[in-house]
């Protein structure tokens, strides 16, 4: 009797990551509650307390909006982030999302 053939699952597509943990804010946006060091968000200059308002051309109304926008992006491509800082100022940052290995 021959041994059964075990087939491995096809490799999954890489998952793009920004390297931040976010939560819904009281206003539109995704509140940064954690920044992974090292990581794309840290390299871009994101800090805890920032609120992400846009990821590229996509407006971010919630943490789920940001997750969907990051997942649709391509690893290694620069993305412009629009951020509201805790003190109320706004800034444009450039991030290069990566993949989890």
UniProtKB/TrEMBL annotation:
InterPro entries: PDZ (IPR001478), PDZ_sf (IPR036034)
Highest rank taxon of the organism: Bacteria
Listed transmembrane segments: none
Domain PDZ intervals: 16-87
Record organism: Streptomyces haneummycinicus
A Pfam family reported for this protein in Swiss-Prot or TrEMBL: PDZ_2
SUPFAM superfamilies in UniProt: PDZ domain-like
Name the UniProt record assigns to this protein: PDZ domain-containing protein
């Amino acid at each position: 009797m021959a041994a059964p053939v075990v087939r491995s699952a096809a490799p999954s597509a890489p998952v793009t990551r920004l390297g931040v943990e976010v939560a819904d804010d009281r206003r539109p946006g995704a509140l940064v509650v954690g920044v992974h060091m090292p990581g794309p968000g840290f390299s871009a200059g994101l800090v805890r307390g920032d609120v992400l308002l846009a990821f590229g051309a996509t407006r971010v109304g919630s943490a789920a909006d940001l997750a969907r926008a990051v997942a649709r992006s391509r690893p290694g491509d620069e993305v412009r982030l629009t951020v509201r800082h805790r003190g109320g100022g706004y800034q444009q940052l450039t991030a290069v999302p990566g993949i989890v290995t």
